[in-house]
Design goal:
This protein is mainly alpha-helical. Helices cover 72% and strands 2% of the residues.
């Protein structure tokens, strides 16, 4: 029963995301489904409370998240992280590999749903031009909302393979390039290319040097991870000194700078921002949940990557690095209704906290 509730909660939120961003269901229904899903997970937690061991890390995350209540603003992003922590606790006993495989099946259903909505005229493809960019929405109110689904489909396709082969690279590259020709979504294209490049490089290094280069590999990955995060928080300087970077990021650096200026010291320390969301996961995490929660999340990501290097799981490292870059230019890491967000945090959390050889078992195809 519990596995069905977990999959249903992921599926319900994801379909909710599609319906809200395509046919535009009312905000009341959207929020109602979100709270229903949270209620189901809480019910599941109570139902099997003796079988689920709540760890110190869960309590610490919840405690740090509660700091945001001091700002007296319970924002949607705080609710999102509460849901993420809740599903991480409830799904702790289940194989990571199987959850990712099931998530890919949900993405297939999503893809069919998008096509059906378009074919039956329930949604409409809109084309618009901004400067020299022509973009098709493919039935969504915002083309970036559709692009997040494309990213999720491509990455989960790769992670659901028993072994990533050249034919899988070719399929994903072809798929992403075709979608890019319609949507002109650069973030998705770059994030998928980063996944493929990091995976290929790590595969080569792991085979070439056994464990001798692990320290160097970890340092290299740290640089990769901190680069987009650094750009985010240096955006006030970069947008003024390097205008070309702002142009290349479609004006995002300017918007990031404005967002940072809209938030004060209270938001930095405790979260609870009421400023309009921007397309950057790290700014939303910091100013929604506060600096202590954000630093713990960053530490968790680093720990997960280091442990995955030790057991040579190149595809999951590539996923985390790719997600980090996608999160720098989209808000998808704080959007659990986008299935790839839940998968990202499951990979990070389980990789960081699974003990010893249990981490290896996370990648076995078993769903109790």
């Amino acid at each position: 029963m519990r596995n069905s509730i977990i999959l249903f909660s992921i599926f319900a939120l994801h379909i909710n995301y599609i319906l809200y961003n395509s046919i535009g269901i009312d905000e009341v229904y959207k929020n109602g489904i979100r709270f229903l899903v949270i209620a189901l997970l809480l019910f599941t937690l109570l139902l099997v409370k003796n079988r689920i061991k709540v760890q110190w890390s869960d309590l610490l995350f919840l405690y740090l998240l509660s700091f945001s209540f001091l700002s007296f603003n319970i924002t949607p992003n705080i609710v999102n992280f509460f849901y993420i922590i809740l599903i991480l606790i409830v799904a702790r006993e289940y194989s990571l590999k199987e959850v990712l495989d099931k998530s890919f099946y949900i993405m297939i259903i999503s893809a069919v749903s998008v096509v059906v909505l378009l074919q039956f005229g329930l949604t409409e493809n809109m084309r618009y031009t901004i400067g020299d960019r022509t973009r098709n929405t493919l039935g969504f109110t915002n083309v970036n909302a559709f692009s997040n689904l494309v990213y999720a489909f491509a990455i989960l396709y790769l992670l659901s393979r028993k072994e990533i082969l050249i034919k899988h690279y070719i399929f994903v590259l072809t798929f992403v390039i075709v979608i890019y020709s319609y949507t002109d979504s650069r973030t998705v294209t770059v994030a998928c290319l980063i996944f493929l490049l990091v995976h290929i490089i790590l595969q080569f290094l792991f085979k070439m040097a056994d464990n001798k280069l692990n320290g160097l590999i970890k340092s290299f990955l740290l640089l990769l991870v901190f680069f987009p995060i650094g750009i985010t928080f240096l955006s006030p300087l970069l947008s003024s000194e390097f205008a070309v970077l702002d142009i290349l990021t479609s004006g995002r650096l300017t918007r990031f700078t404005e967002y940072i200026g809209d938030n004060g010291v209270v938001n930095l320390l405790f979260g609870g921002t009421t400023a309009a969301d921007k397309d950057n996961s790290y700014l939303l995490i910091l100013f929604s949940t506060g600096i202590l929660f954000s630093l713990m999340v960053l530490g968790l990501i680093v720990k997960a990557i280091f442990r995955l290097v030790d057991i040579k799981k190149s595809q999951y490292i590539a996923f985390i690095v790719s997600g980090i870059y996608a999160g720098a230019f989209e808000s998808l890491l704080v959007r659990p209704e986008i299935i790839i967000s839940i998968c990202f945090w499951l990979v990070v959390y389980k990789s960081a906290f699974a003990k010893g050889r249990l981490l290896e078992k996370e990648f076995e195809n078993k769903f109790i």
